[in-house]
Amino acid sequence: MPKITLPFSLEEESKISLIAGVDEAGRGPLAGDVIAAAVILEHSAPLEGLTDSKKLSPRQREKLFPLIQEKAIAYAIGRASVEEIDTLNILHASLLAMQRAVAGLNIPPEFIYVDGNRYPELPCPARAVVKGDSRVASIAAASVLAKVIRDQEMVALDAEFPGYGLAQHKGYPTQAHMEALETLGPSRLHRKSFGPVAELLK
Asked: What is the greatest pairwise CA distance in the chain?
């Protein structure tokens, strides 16, 4: 796996000790909340195998999940609900979830890296990093936490909303999910503002 480094110069990095990485999981699914995580890692103690959660197998993510929680200086989870997604749109709901994750940190960061090309209003200087989950260790750690927690929640919700296959596709618009939606109709877990769901509600 490629080595992840912070996009700081060594001189800049030496002056900042508490750098948080922020990422989200669940922008694309048709169902469920969007989950964000904020993580502050120790610069001098990199986690072996850490990279963008999408490049890791479920087993690799599950293995890294407790290690990140154990080794992180601080971490927190934020979310935006299905209702907030439908009210605000998925972009602004994702940014809200990120704000909530940062607000949940019990140690305030001095600088924040956010995955993507934009970031919400935050309590300290921040920078958006395109493909940051492959470039910044703390963002990669946040991506793993957010992904694992969201996947676990969707597996648990599968029992509450049977027939949709949530444990398998985690709410993404797979063929099986679309067929289940056609048969069962949308549940209260589904995002009514998303095109495929909105079409079924007409």
From this structure: 59
